[in-house]
Amino acid sequence: MSNQDIIRVKNFIHGEWVEETGVEYTPLYNPSTGAVIGEVPMTSEKTSLAAVDSAHGAYASWRKLSVSKRVGFLFDMRQAMVNKEEQLAVSIALDQAKHISEARGEVRRVIEIIEAACSIPTLIQGETLDGIAKNINGRVVKQALGVFGGVAPFNFPALVFGWFIPYAIGVGNTFIYKPSTQSPLFMQEMGTIFQEIGLPKGVVNIVHGNRSIPGTWYENDKISGVCLVGSTNTAKKMAEACGRGGKRSMLLGGAKNFLVAMEDVNWDVFIDNFIHSCYGSAGQRCLAGSVVAAVPEIYDELVERVIEASKKVSVGDAMDPDVYMGPVISAKAKENIENYIEIGIEQGSTLALDGRNPEMPEKNKDGYFVGPTVFTDVTPCRRIAQEEIFGPVAAIMKIKDLDDVLQLIRQQKFGNGACIFTQNQYYTEKFIAEADVGMVGVNVGVCAPHPYLPFGGIKDSHLGTDKVQGKDGIDFFTQNKVATIRYAPPAGVNEEGERTDSDKSVRSCVAQ
Amino acid sequence: MSNQDIIRVKNFIHGEWVEETGVEYTPLYNPSTGAVIGEVPMTSEKTSLAAVDSAHGAYASWRKLSVSKRVGFLFDMRQAMVNKEEQLAVSIALDQAKHISEARGEVRRVIEIIEAACSIPTLIQGETLDGIAKNINGRVVKQALGVFGGVAPFNFPALVFGWFIPYAIGVGNTFIYKPSTQSPLFMQEMGTIFQEIGLPKGVVNIVHGNRSIPGTWYENDKISGVCLVGSTNTAKKMAEACGRGGKRSMLLGGAKNFLVAMEDVNWDVFIDNFIHSCYGSAGQRCLAGSVVAAVPEIYDELVERVIEASKKVSVGDAMDPDVYMGPVISAKAKENIENYIEIGIEQGSTLALDGRNPEMPEKNKDGYFVGPTVFTDVTPCRRIAQEEIFGPVAAIMKIKDLDDVLQLIRQQKFGNGACIFTQNQYYTEKFIAEADVGMVGVNVGVCAPHPYLPFGGIKDSHLGTDKVQGKDGIDFFTQNKVATIRYAPPAGVNEEGERTDSDKSVRSCVAQ
Amino acid sequence: MSNQDIIRVKNFIHGEWVEETGVEYTPLYNPSTGAVIGEVPMTSEKTSLAAVDSAHGAYASWRKLSVSKRVGFLFDMRQAMVNKEEQLAVSIALDQAKHISEARGEVRRVIEIIEAACSIPTLIQGETLDGIAKNINGRVVKQALGVFGGVAPFNFPALVFGWFIPYAIGVGNTFIYKPSTQSPLFMQEMGTIFQEIGLPKGVVNIVHGNRSIPGTWYENDKISGVCLVGSTNTAKKMAEACGRGGKRSMLLGGAKNFLVAMEDVNWDVFIDNFIHSCYGSAGQRCLAGSVVAAVPEIYDELVERVIEASKKVSVGDAMDPDVYMGPVISAKAKENIENYIEIGIEQGSTLALDGRNPEMPEKNKDGYFVGPTVFTDVTPCRRIAQEEIFGPVAAIMKIKDLDDVLQLIRQQKFGNGACIFTQNQYYTEKFIAEADVGMVGVNVGVCAPHPYLPFGGIKDSHLGTDKVQGKDGIDFFTQNKVATIRYAPPAGVNEEGERTDSDKSVRSCVAQ
Amino acid sequence: MSNQDIIRVKNFIHGEWVEETGVEYTPLYNPSTGAVIGEVPMTSEKTSLAAVDSAHGAYASWRKLSVSKRVGFLFDMRQAMVNKEEQLAVSIALDQAKHISEARGEVRRVIEIIEAACSIPTLIQGETLDGIAKNINGRVVKQALGVFGGVAPFNFPALVFGWFIPYAIGVGNTFIYKPSTQSPLFMQEMGTIFQEIGLPKGVVNIVHGNRSIPGTWYENDKISGVCLVGSTNTAKKMAEACGRGGKRSMLLGGAKNFLVAMEDVNWDVFIDNFIHSCYGSAGQRCLAGSVVAAVPEIYDELVERVIEASKKVSVGDAMDPDVYMGPVISAKAKENIENYIEIGIEQGSTLALDGRNPEMPEKNKDGYFVGPTVFTDVTPCRRIAQEEIFGPVAAIMKIKDLDDVLQLIRQQKFGNGACIFTQNQYYTEKFIAEADVGMVGVNVGVCAPHPYLPFGGIKDSHLGTDKVQGKDGIDFFTQNKVATIRYAPPAGVNEEGERTDSDKSVRSCVAQ
Q1: CA of B273, closest CA in chain C: separation in Å?
Q2: Which of A152, D109, D118, D207 is the most exposed, fewest CB within 10 Å of its CB?
Q3: pTM for this one?
Q4: Which domains does chain A have, with CATH numbers?
């Protein structure tokens, strides 16, 4: 790739693509090859504040549009994305190196999320309680709050856009979005779509850079709230800053998700779902199933089947149709995963399948690849069973029974997802009731809720009270404003609505 | 129009256009000219039953599609209608002779109704109440019921389609639709759209004919419910038959709607809305404001302003862009309206503006025209103040005060809509609380609720408990099925989910 | 019992106990002994109309009370019932001859239903959709309708009161209640409670008699709706009359409920629940499990276990603490059940346990007793498998698999309840999704939903669209009135709320 | 008061009253007299942690009780409070020195809040979306989270209890409550009620002390969330600490509420409400109306009427029935208010009524009294118009028009309540839509929402996204856990629920 092919990523400020000048740019890589394919500006605080001003200015008129009109833009956005579906997927497969078939799936999912957001006129309805006392009515209206800022992680450049922006703007707010500097290309496409559908200037602004961007938000009177999908560490730091600044926040953090196999497991269902859950997105997702817990009577068979299936998982270029799993996001990510594999070995677990440094064709030899890796005989307190590795590494442990694994899940600092594989309804209901997480799956490996239902965890996986998607999506981006309204008769009219000077006789057709 | 131009209206049975043979056909007129433009089959019971079979057969698989897939057809239907918007409007302006600008408005409204129906995955969500007792959960699911039949009136061929079919099929039922024989052309377009979007065969069937069509439904085990927009008389007859046959029914009937002007009326708002309400659709709609009630201090001015504005309303061909109001639906309708004008005169009201037999250009001289007609000095019990005229005839009466008119509304047999014109919040809230109708308007002339909110009246205007549109639309076409689920541990497992033979010690990383 | 001990049942009209004169009285029996214990007036139409007038008059002010105040009466009613719990139970055990332990259960359940009705201020909240267009708001308010009439069956004198009256009056209607002439005593207690808590006169009226009582409602302008728990035959007749009269109706009819046992049935759970379901209330309830369907591999064992357990069921006086099952309601009911047993034999089923004419102690020798009765080898189309016997008679049939029994349930004319006994979640979910009834149970024998969830069937078991209890309870007794409200600035004020003559400069403390 | 009459305030730990030893005690005053009436322990961290352990231990079984049983305790708590209504009111009038008539009102309000919390079984219902894909269901359940800690302010010792505890425990959490050290007596009564109704030990713990108590919560794994009603400064500090520790928080802070009088103000309504709003609780409440904004044509009359009415407000002992307004909470509070009066004068506003150092009878001469105080000619940016004084001080300013005051409200850092006085519906709706606060009042002075509707502000008045009361109350104390459930047929059964080896013929009674 020659120098002139380098993509110079731009900010999208007040409806226009703007090239940031006078700042450092960070290189953008294709993780499948290690090649530099672009550069991303470390945007200045001044530009960041210009984005805030744009969003704040746009809010005044945007919030006054009828909800039908605002949702009309979502209908159009959806159609525009349908029309560009492949182009959007390729943008993800390129910089984030999500395998193209998964990238297509992510774009499809976002289209469904926007369809769900088209329910906003239904979801945003408030409540009435008339006659709470004589001539007093109560009314609850769900109102937008102002400008929100959002920070995205590298691993789901489309999905996180879908969680934040359609809901935030559909209910009447405006938005500033900071994509990951490692996967900015998807939003470069979306900004153009915003222009095509005529979204008013300033309703969505896109700014690239580091933590100095959200740094301009926390104490800023023009900002109403902040959202994030990122690490727990970042989430806590942002929560602290938001608390200090008095901003509402919804911050999705890290995870460590159990896949629990009971004695009546359906093997086909389990293995299919395990592969998808553990190796999909090369393990870089907050719902990856990275701890496999099996009861004693099936433990040995499970280990054997998992290793056999894992060996068949093909690794390679994200654009190669014959490949199942692409690279991880960066050289540093690769190193971090390999480091965890060392730790696993050191703490005494058995490395049953070692995915480090898989063989690659010439063009991918500098890509950031880690193959399927399986540890067995893992015990609960080891770091590979407790910490988020964010790579294709499975830790298999033996559990005593359902209660045993429920306790392990409860002791975890994370609380994102947990899945059980069983056909028994007691196990199912017990698990749903007691797994101390935000999302539960039964015979599924990735327990991502349907776009019409809320998505999010608890404990260290989610700071804040509202989740994304569905009714929760409305709650975070609105307040429930309550009006208490007393109305009294005008002068000369009594409590019955009669003029005090008028004839009181009733005219009745029935009585005639 | 030569004989070969006559449109031979077809039934739409199991996804195909089928010409009915061996039965009588009734002529279809263009009310703007009185010309015969087509013919409509009086379909046989045999064909009607074939439609039932088609719908019943289709139900088995249609209901099992995921709600997202069913709603996907609504997204496609909406887009197809957007693409054919003008063609659909012309079909209404032709046989129903709604003025083309109003016909466009009706089509636009139906598109919005379908957009609202795209919220079905949100609206159809049931409820859970877990842990209602130890190991017992409760669950409510909103489920489709089977096949519904619907009968439409002539006056809103598109709107009534929108009220019934998107909701009925979106939640999982299948449908048989009988359009009015006076305005069948809109559905001839829609059937083709159903084919274009690949709606499964039998999900919607269209059958033309008389009351023998619903006659095949009432005692039919394959039919779950019946809906109607029509006269109160028809509604009661159908309610009786449905009761006898054990079918649920939602039957919208006639109306007589008050427009109430208070002393602080904003004249511009009132007159604009009066004209639209009384003369729109040539007065042929269930929300037409046909009784104008004014308090004494503004009564004289109101009469003067109403007459002045009414005189300016142009009458003519439904396709003429310079015209405001088209013809009424038929010669018989015209005669009926003229008969009411006679009754008004006979019972002593003042005919302040006589719209009978307006002058028309040559091509429209056989059209069914009645011009704006205004009675003044009407008293409440006169027939023109009590009965539905379904034509452009206003009855103006003087009221004493708000309480007076609220009593008149309460004494009415109908209970569809009522509107007040005021700027005072006490009047507003009192009217909303006490007007004994299903729909209230404040400073609007046609109080049709927004597509996301329910539409319907009470008393003789609405038989049944559910209305159309929004959450009500879901309720009629589904049942709330309730499951009570007990789950008990499998053998060898105690109430805590522990194997009774396993080691009870807890493994805690915290405790290490 | 001497003549002077005969209870002369009174009507409760406008807050007073009134003895009906000049009419026939029908005897009231103690079904445990056959003794006459009272007499019940066949109230005149004149008195019935007086009750209507009372309720109609009371409505005007009752509906204007704040919802908190109306619900305050429910809190008080609940407490008064708690205080009289045993007395209320005895009243049921006496005339309806429900066994005293079950009678206590019924009273307890009604108290819970009233607790659920205390949620009315939450449930009755309407919706708002502000800004549906510029300066236009939409609002939905759930409003009472007027006077409702309700007719109760003999078998649940307390429960049916709980389904109708707390919801009907809590939302603002007034009520006329006709208890069964076979079990009027419970409401004699309740009327006194209404007086004690100071319920305004006319809010609830109690009238005893035959179908001429509801006969005064159907065409009566003062009545808004009718509800019933009774036979399907009565329900259809009332539906027809309500349709003719334009009244909304909610009419619960008959039932025939399957208990389905799968191959993984938990025997203890099944047998316990079968006994309770089939023999509780002596089989006289709409959720009695009267068809037992078992898959082939457990059929023989199930037959054996059912007969063994049925033989242990003790029959006797409703007040005897050692008895499980009391008598049926009347000599005629007994005869009817015995007739069905004959039919069962004639159509070829095996009478494996014959409960006719069980031996009784002297004092109960004239009571109306039928003991547990079990038919085996029943095939689906036999009358004892299709018709409601309303007595302690079980019909056991062999089914092929889950799909087989789902088809049988679908073909039934009734659609009230159905229960499955299994531990498998596929069977559970399939059954919940596809059993063509209104209420489903899993590992429970009587699938009565929790008081916070709706109760009711479909098909011939329920005429109308709303069920009782929970959100459904609100829907039937209210309408969703929709207001569309336009507000425009007063003269001299522009769209921004500014006086057109005032200085436009903004005063900002921030800018200082 | 002799030494032995000093109340030694106790902690309530694990269901027992425990006297804290070895720590400092702070004196408790009667603000009406300045006398020391008790002493309050500055509880040690060790005891605070014991309370956490108690609550955490109790959670395990409390959360597993059915919701009906938990709400049963609320029914009992309500009844116990009704029985002790006056005793509870006196406890508030004593240490908080809220005037006894207001104290009674506060207790009454809390009883209503508990009644509203009795709707929890309705409010806590989750959602279902069955069939989201073939054989996959989605379910949302609202689940408790664990242990919550709450900190109360001095001014509403009962109300804040009502906001936090009934909802927190009703949904299944357990609670640690730190009352204000200035008004601990109400909770001393409540703890005894908890014992009387048999509330399980540890479900509610009461701990007195300073900020070291919540200091034990933020980083504590046993704590799930924190709530506060207090100053904005405290709220932000706690938000920061909660963010750092990963706890959810709901923190109500300070306020500065406008009362806006338009040209059509109803004077009687305005003055009554002004007096209640500004001088109720001696101005020590977050909904006190402390800025009065009037349009020019009524400004002068308003000033005159406000001063005249303010002069009539009697000040004195909280237990004196002839008094309207009691003292402020402490000598320091008095000093702070007097300091603000100085600031008001210094910044140029007119001190039209000076309430400093009102004359008092001998027994109250050391009480902390400030009388009604009115500033006129206040301009928006002055400190007395911007900062929370928390005393009976009104600042009157002239505004240009509605838009002008809406801008002033928008510029405020606080966003709690705002009230308008008008009869015009445009002003009403504009104000509801655009006043940038959480609670709006129309013709009411204290816009506290009805107990069934949410209560809370925005901006610096409320940190977090959920409010208290109603549906919001549920949201903060639960998470929306989402389950995605796939069920597949057991071996030997096909997708239709048929055994693959069974005869496929359908048995149909209809077909026979």
Answers
A1: 11
A2: D109
A3: 0.96
A4: 3-253+462-481 (3.40.605.10), 257-450 (3.40.309.10)
